[in-house]
Amino acid sequence: MESFSLILAIVVVTALAFDFTNGFHDTANAMATTISTGALKPKVAVAMSAVLNLVGAFLSVEVANTISKGLVDENGIRPEVIFAALVGAILWNLLTWLVGLPSSSSHALMGGLIGATVASAGFGAVHGDVLVTKVLLPAVAAPVVAGLAAMLATRFSYGIGKNAEGEATRKGYRAGQIASAGLVSLAHGTNDAQKTMGIITLALIAGGSIAPGSNPPTWVILSAGLAIALGTYIGGWRIIRTMGKGLTELEPQQGFAAQTSAATAILASSHLGFSLSTTHVVSGSVMGAGLGRKGGVVRWSTATRMLVAWALTLPAAALVGALAETVTGLGDWGTALVAVFLVASSAAIWKMSRREVVDATNVNDTEEPAGVVTTAIAAVTPPPAGTVAEDLTATIPSPATPLAVPTVDPATPPAAAV
User: pTM value?
Assistant: First the structure.
């Protein structure tokens, strides 16, 4: 095994901690729709996802090589830089988990790495062409492509099943949804676990433990796979609630279409070495599936909050990474100070999360309130046939006792009657 210094050991442990947060932060990507439609019970879903994440970690190292060899210049990068990058990524993951926003762990890691590298070695140490072609462009294109594919797949699914018996169709799609969820979990392992492999490999190169250009050692692949699998099993229930119930209401046909489209996009990007955000892909697929069903509505208020979080991920993690690198540059006591800050901040976020606990028992209990656009669409949508009369009956009170009509004796003069 490679020789280790104390700082290198700290970096490896911190990287595995990030991998753990990546696991529970991104569980929703694979299992939110499966849980929300009832295809699998919550605990069974996250256990299956954890196992397949571990298996997926061994399928490829292309994305790991993009992180360790392509994004930043390996020469002159100290292990402290990697540590600072991980601090930015972990804190962003925890903050977005606390508020239930499915942001990108991948972009948090790369943002932290870019910020720490710039603070240490300047902008010239960042390979801009790799950043644009393998990070930024896929971040924009992937959710759009996956969303369009999911929308078309949803319409196709409803089209071919319109004459089928309803309950039998739902059962069939639930089974297909379980299979597609497994495929997303496998794809997540091939993509996201590799990012931690890449960051640990970069730290080993920076610390002089392995030669530049080396592939991740076997123990790095195994430890990264186990860390992300454990985080996945813990379950990021807050984000699962947002992804499964907050964006749109999904039926089994939509869940199957969304997950199949997402898995295809993620596996293709992993093969090409694109450091793709599985969160972006799955969110795009869920929105596309929501729009693909006739009468389906996407909650754009939730989607807008997600887009804002996506836009802030890279710069926010980069800023924290740069600040952390500035402090670690002061010496060993600076590195210790950053480590204490990371632990204290993580503990504070966890304590805040205990004020409103979201877990497997209540993940589907509360739905996201409808936004302005959803409310407006619902207001102008004609009610189903046969409901108008019922609604009028419910809103117009029935008359009380009939009014008595006075009778007038024809023999009585009008004046006397008055």
Answer: 0.76
